[in-house]
Amino acid sequence: RAHTVRQKGVPHSHPMRSISVLISSSNSNRHYIISRLLLLRHSHSSSLRTQRSTAITITPMDAEESLRRALAEKQSRIEAQGNAVRELKASGAAKPEIAAVVEALNALKLEKASIESQLQAAVSGTSSSVNRDAFRQAVVNTLERRLFYIPSFKIYRGVAGLYDYGPPGCAVKSNVLAFWRQHFVLEENMLEVDCPCVTPEIVLKASGHVEKFTDLMVKDEKTGTCYRADHLLKDFCKEKLEKDLSMPAEKAAELKHVLAVLDDLSAEELGAKIKDYSIVAPDTKNPLSDPYPFNLMFQTSIGPSGLSPGYMRPETAQGIFVNFKDLYYYNGNKLPFAAAQIGQAFRNEISPRQGLLRVREFTLAEIEHFVDPEDKSHPKYPEVANLEFLMFPREEQMSGQSAKRLPLGETVSRGIVNNETLAYFIGRVYLFLTCLGIDKERLRFRQHLANEMAHYAADCWDAEIECSYGWIECVGIADRSAYDLRAHTEKSGVPLVAHEKFSEPREVEKLVIAPVKKELGLAFKGNQKMVVEALEAMDEKEAMDLKATLEAKGEAEFYVCTLGKAITIKKNMVTISKEKKKEHQRVFTPSVIEPSFGIGRIIYCLFEHSFYMRPSKAKDEQLNVFRFPPLVAPIKCTVFPLVQNQQYEEVSKLISKSLTAAGISHKIDITGTSIGKRYARTDELGVPFAITVDSTSSVTIRERDSKDQIRISVEKVASVVKEVTDGQSTWADVLKIYPPHSSVSADE
Hints:
By secondary structure, this protein is α+β, with helices and mostly antiparallel strands. The protein is built from 24 helices and 30 strands. It has five domains: 61-124; 139-211 and 311-497 and 589-617, Bira Bifunctional Protein, Domain 2 (BirA Bifunctional Protein, domain 2, 2-Layer Sandwich), CATH 3.30.930; 214-295, Herpes Virus-1; 505-588, Signal recognition particle alu RNA binding heterodimer, srp9/1; 635-737, Rossmann fold, CATH 3.40.50.
């Protein structure tokens, strides 16, 4: 019999990529078989080195699919070669003959292992040599040991999704928020407010949170333990893709499609997938209930009677929206203006995980920039237009490409970013994050796909930071149009509008869309509100097209984004007209552009981006270092008397007073341990500068990452440290003025 197994799409001329093995039990053909195998054996020795590192050549677009197909075909060849070995053994072939066939089989196995390695790297999105879990564990262990943060209520075994910041963590958080205020609130003359965490139910009904702020949940049918349904399906698909390398390419494509549409699945579709894949409770392997919606807000009651329901706010934005009228008046009845708020938000996550990235209480910093919907230009846009950084427009996502560097101005001129004000804030967010210490190579701005955006949103982008958990959304920058102010106007009866006065009266033609709520309620019942919102959100062309269809046919198909389907609108359900009248002023509902910052997520990513390890002087251990910029470092400098000496300690106290007067956070360490160990301790806290007192007139200042030292007089210490920590100069500038001190190495 002749078995020919060839790898698809690879030239047959390559000795290892196209092997024809002839197998026969008859002695007359054996010499031909052996000579053929010996030729293969010779070719193995010359080509195996390259085969181990490069099994196949593929393009990035179809990398995973090609690798899976190659792996399946390689497995078929291994089985065929294994049959050859067994037949030769059964026929009583000589040992050298069998050895040649076995060597070919082993070579095929090596090729298979190489493809598996490439496939594993392609699936996980990282080189197999990089152990993300080990890196994350090293970071988290250091953070918890040095009390940056720890699980809350630790002595009572803690509560999932709740964390306490310790002293250095509080300092980092305080520094991040102080820089946020400087970078945004002061720079843009924003109006800062501070609103209550407890919010009346009616406010959150108007915003849609009571009805829509839900995740789909499943329960362990025996223990009652709750799980987030989409997380279980996502984990199942990812685990299968990463671990089942022999999975057919078609099945892998199916699982990848499920991951792509996961956010769009209804409760019924999600439940069907869970049943199709036989997904069970992770801890007990018990069957799961059907998915059902769970509202993520913490409910409470205001006052002792229990008659006034409320919620712990899930975001800070609503406090700004309900105060728009007063803020507009405070700003002199002028647009544009921005309001900002920093505060705690609460979300009763079904299954919190990933440390600080998914918690039940967290700090948000949000900006609501109110602007005329007919003029979304920004006077300071040219300041950021030339910035170039990783952007991930929806077209690239849909075509399977990766993020690419784009000039911000180009994205506006090409219509990728909707308007100048949105682009301005994208640029400012980029500058903010990179100044904090976020690696710009691991920062990208991803545009929301059409199915991710609410029907009223004009454009939305997320600042995503890559860490050991993958790409994490840390800042959302959205043009929310006028939805929020309109919703609160309708619910409260108070017009949240702006005015533009005309120098001369103008005759204007206005589009009037008047949904007939009674008829819509009879037809769509509980979905009436969403249908009304969709009708009122139509632009002029869409509205006039709908009117023409209704007049011609009496009914029309109308797509409602929030329902995810088309409905039939009849002529008696909506009135659409244009009216002409003279106006002395224009009254309109402002649009809002909202940058929303998850402070805890930013800080955790900053921890990972700042962490590295370096060998000790003796090379016998790895020392942990956080390379925080001075801007966010929890302590700006430490003061060390070189030895326990009364004079040195007095100088240390004098320096401490001058640092305090300059507003520089610092710490004195007069323990008797070696100076090298004291340096290592402060490096692990991310302290950028260490002042060593080794005389009564001058001291050395050591920089954390380079370990370079300078010698400087005691009187100048505070001013030099302040200049660098305030960002007025850099360490490189300091080295130009003060000569390096190298009589003793920093570690010694």
